[in-house]
Amino acid sequence: MTISKTSLFTRQELIGFIVLAVVIFVLLPLALDNFRLNLFGKYLTYAFVAIGLVLCWGAGGILSLGQGVFFGLGGYCMAMFLKLEASTPENTSIQSTPGIPDFMDWNQLTELPSWWVPFYSLTFSLVAVVIVPVIFAFIIGVAMFRRRVGGVYFAIITQAFAAILTILIIGQQGYTGGVNGITDLRTLKGWDIRTDEAKEVLYYVNGVLLFVVLVIAQFVRKSKLGRILIAMRDQEDRVRFSGYDVAGFKIFIFCLGAAFAGIGGAMFTLQVGFMSPTLVGIVPSIEMVIFCAVGGRLSILGAVYGALLVNWAKTTFSESFPELWLFGLGGLFIAVVMLFPNGLAGVWSEKIMPRIAGLMEGRKPTAKPLVAPSPKEKEAA
Asked: Is 224 left (phi over 0), alpha (psi -120 to 50) or beta?
């Protein structure tokens, strides 16, 4: 994968990255208390998914309505390690079988399942956070893209996978915690993640990882792969007839989006302290697409702002109007899609930036005439 002769960031993009860094690392910590800052830390975990959707949907034309699957898999991998660390024989001495997670004891399991044992290792768990979602994405991608399944059919199939995984997690209560998920997560290698200080540290770790993912996504967009993805989105058959392995490119970018979502899920588990099937199913997966659409499906920075804005609006509406917040959230989405089809990023690039550029040049931007002036109007001018 080679990068183009142009630099990784244009001047405008570099300014956008700097502004986002100031917002995340300076403005929000200064303006918010610990509780609200932790909330925004949770919102940032969804931004990982939104960035992956920009690459899959915005660049590659692959609309996935099942990204919650990969978010949940990453989250569960991290939760399994944290739960095992919290389930020492001393902490679980009142159970019938000490040394195993409490939900296993409640379901009459007498020993830890063999596939849980590797999650005693933090290194294995961190690798699994990325690898497990990628493996699932690879299986889905090979099965779908090699058969040229795309468009709305692919979106519906990914929805089905989200529903299947949710049912599987709830049904296997003794192994997964069931509908309650994996809760009561306490420490990470002895470090209490429940304190305000720990939440603040995790917020900054979250922000740093987010910028690492943003740089990777920017590299992909500016590389030859990024140009091929855009070509596939607009003229897939022409790209295929040119000799490119369209299915292979789709599988790769779909797996990359799954890896980003898995990292976001792991950070969610650390930031919030639990993982449940309510974050895996169809509804959260559709909400993740809304984050991307509101921010702008063609902009990785817009996706981050979209995740922050939609989740902040969701929290605000649900606190102020507990019975109407879903209608408010739906109205926000409909308004953005109808009035600003390119999302917040489109408003910035098409409306705000031209005016700022005009002011910086010392002239007021004027609207172009809709019709050409008549000869008499030219003479008068």
From this structure: alpha
